[in-house]
């Protein structure tokens, strides 16, 4: 392969090179996922992925410039090594030691989700990032100020030019870049996936756990994504301080009371604590809730009208199967990490 030395190229040659680079960066690319995954909910035909836009979004995701104090980035609460969750923190932490209202959800397989946030209050991933940016206890910034900061940066003006054909940063373009990067974060390389692809086999204990899962959990945590990303009342008692009623907080509709988005069971080893308010630190506590802690109320999921009880051996088998849903590739893939 011939090496091109930029400094020796004539102006016409430089122009051709930059045109080729721009064409390469703006080509549509395909989201890669297994054949047994359902069709994504996101409309990639209308809004195709672009390589340069993804890379811009990746830089924005890790840049604290999005916060008022220039100290909090998206990655502060969505850390790659923890499957893009905020492991160990019950509630999200923001600028000036602010504490958010809910646990930071893991962000992977977003292309299959129609709504976002624990209460589904955002219906379009292309604008979702506005919520944490504007939240006074999270990033606490005005998006118009963010745009001014981006336009004041020579590096960002170059990246916006590569992504959109001109160097002007806008709120719409910044949000689109963030969403394009996040849409590429796909979790599909667990042992479960390798079994589905015929590249591995389950142990006897994993098979038993898989059977227990399909009998007791699959209705809400539907495979292969291990969530249908709908909403359910799972019988949690209302936290006395947070007073969080899920979708009802926004809609005030009776049927939405205590309805929270159903999270995926993929990557549970990386995403503790669990539930919308991070109240459970271990999976044993989660199972104990479904056995002893369900509070009956109108709208309680029909699957939870009776407690779900496992004996010790069954718990062990179920947890062994759930461990087969952890994606070590996701948490270590350098293409998702902070840009150099």
Automatic annotation (TrEMBL):
It is found in: Periplasm. PROSITE patterns: CYTC. Gene3D superfamilies: Cytochrome c-like domain (1.10.760.10). Its EC number is 1.11.1.5. Its main location: periplasm. One of its GO terms (molecular function) is cytochrome-c peroxidase activity. The keyword Heme applies. Keywords: Heme, Iron, Metal-binding, Oxidoreductase, Periplasm, Peroxidase, Signal. Signal peptide: none annotated. Residues 52-154, 193-326 form the Cytochrome c domain. Pfam families: CCP_MauG. It comes from the Bacteria. The keyword NAD does not apply. This is Cytochrome c peroxidase. It comes from Chryseobacterium camelliae.
């Amino acid at each position: 392969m011939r090496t091109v030395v930029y400094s020796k190229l004539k102006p016409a040659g430089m122009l051709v090179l930059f045109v080729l680079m721009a064409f390469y960066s703006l080509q549509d690319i395909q989201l890669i996922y297994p054949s047994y995954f359902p069709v994504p909910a996101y409309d990639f035909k209308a809004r195709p992925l672009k390589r340069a836009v993804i890379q811009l979004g990746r830089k924005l995701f890790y840049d604290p410039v999005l916060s008022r104090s220039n100290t909090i980035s998206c990655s502060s609460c969505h850390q790659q090594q923890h499957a893009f969750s905020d492991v160990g923190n019950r509630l999200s932490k923001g600028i000036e030691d602010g504490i958010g209202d809910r646990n930071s959800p893991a962000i992977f397989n977003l292309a299959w989700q129609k709504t976002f946030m624990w209460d589904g209050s955002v219906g379009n991933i292309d604008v979702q990032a506005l919520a944490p940016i504007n939240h006074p206890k999270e990033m606490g910034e005005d998006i118009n100020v963010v745009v001014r900061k981006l336009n004041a940066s020579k590096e960002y003006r170059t990246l916006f030019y590569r992504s959109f054909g001109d160097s002007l940063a806008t709120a719409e373009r910044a949000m689109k870049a963030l969403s394009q990067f996040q849409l590429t974060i796909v979790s599909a390389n667990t042992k479960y996936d390798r079994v589905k692809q015929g590249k591995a086999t389950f142990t006897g204990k994993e098979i038993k756990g898989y059977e227990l899962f399909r009998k007791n959990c699959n209705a809400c945590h539907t495979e292969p994504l291990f969530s249908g990303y709908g909403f359910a009342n799972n019988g949690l008692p209302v936290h006395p301080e947070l007073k969080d009623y899920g979708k009802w907080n926004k809609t005030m509709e009776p049927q939405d009371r205590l309805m929270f988005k159903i999270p995926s069971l993929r990557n549970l080893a990386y995403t503790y604590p669990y539930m919308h308010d991070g109240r459970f630190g271990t999976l044993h506590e989660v199972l104990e809730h479904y056995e002893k802690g369900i509070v009956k109320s109108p709208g309680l999921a029909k699957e939870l009208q009776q407690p779900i009880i496992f004996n010790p051996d069954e718990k062990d088998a179920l947890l062994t199967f759930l461990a087969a849903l952890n994606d070590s590739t996701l948490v270590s893939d350098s293409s998702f990490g902070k840009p150099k």
